[in-house]
Amino acid sequence: MLPYTVMLIVPTGIGASIGGYAGDALPTARAISQVCDRLITHPNVMNGAQLYWNLPNVLYTEGYALDQFAAGNWNLRPVHSNKIGLLIDCGTEPDLITRHLQAADAARATLGLTLTDYVLTDEPLNVSLKRADSGATWGTIGNPDSLLRAAEKLIHQAGATAIAVIARFPDDVGSEALSNYRQGHGVDPLAGAEAVISHLIVRQFKIPCAHAPALSPLELDPSISPKSAAEELGHTFLPCVLVGLSRAPQFVEQFVDKVDLSGNLQLRNNQTQPQTQSTDIHRDQVNALILPESACGGSALLHLSQTSTQIITVRENTSRMQVSPADLGINALSVQSYLEAIGTLVALRHGINPAALSPKIDPIARFSHSFIMKP
Q: Which of 94, 98, 189, 296 is the most exposed place for a label (fewest CB within 10 A)?
């Protein structure tokens, strides 16, 4: 039987009620991973600061790479392990750098992960945070070239096959946005800028990457929400990133532009077709995509909606976005909760029409669509 493959997406920085905080979508990923053979998802779903859960059948895939995969441009290649390069913003205070290096050493000694020696950027990255009128967050990097130079050194000189970035983020202590987030009813003020950092490295080097922000510790607040509590546990968010990257799939670029009438591949720029492996995963193997019903404007959804992938949207996972499948003319199966989505996956996996589980089934009707055959 073919492996049943599910993709789970919760977009970053949109205030999703599930997945908009510190790893609060991880229980959802754990549950879904139990009813499929392979779950493809991204760091925003799996990262819980110092908390994580290693799921062997989950492919931890950065957001830009997820879009390229859904577009059919890249395949995912599962690996047994990666050699993680640690990239640290030189604008980080020495004490904070030491805290992160201790976390990296703990991951090596306690979890047995493989890391290269670390690299400091040659200039401070100067990350800034932005907020859209809708409340969604994003950010900019003042010195992106410094980020890329450090990544290149880790890849080409240290032999890294995945990159963990630690960038010094501006402290937002006392802001209303941070206070709301800690109370469980705001938008993550860091998420949008984090995505910019990882997207840049993945786009340039086609290598797994994830980010852990460096921040000054916050004052103790006994009233914070359980959904954001994972970020209150220590001095670093690095552990979950290292665990995720340790087995993140590699990316295999596809150079095929088109197939001619005789079935021969036409390759772009005289490129050689990459050497594929039987374990490589391509987008046509994705059986189902699950995402919030209000957050359907992303590239991955738009691409997969053109394939046989079953789109499943979850109504109760509300967000600051207001883009539904209907707004885009996309046919999707709407469910109320992730629990209902899991039941739907079980039915679909075993060839059962979910509509057959409803108390009322409409009688079969005669197909009435008319068309004119062209000469």
A: 94
Question: Taking a C-beta distance cutoff of 8 angstroms, is the pair 72, 251 a contact?
Answer: no
Q: What is the pTM of this model?
A: 0.90
| Residue type at position 235 | H
How confident is the model over 140-199, as pLDDT tens digits?
Answer: 899 999 999 999 999 999 999 999 999 998 887 557 777 777 777 777 767 777 888 999
Count CB neighbours of 124 within 10 A: 15
In 304-374, where do the E strands start and end? 310-314, 333-335
**CB crowding 220-253: b at 16 or more within 10 Å, else e:** eeeebbebbbbbeeebbbbbbbbbbbbbbbbbbe
**Ordered alpha helix ranges (H), 183-248:** 191-205, 238-246
Residue type at 42?
H
Residue 122: count other Cβ atoms within 10 Å of its Cβ. 12
- What are residue 163's DSSP bridge partners? 85, 209
- Whether the pLDDT of residue 123 is over 50: the answer is yes
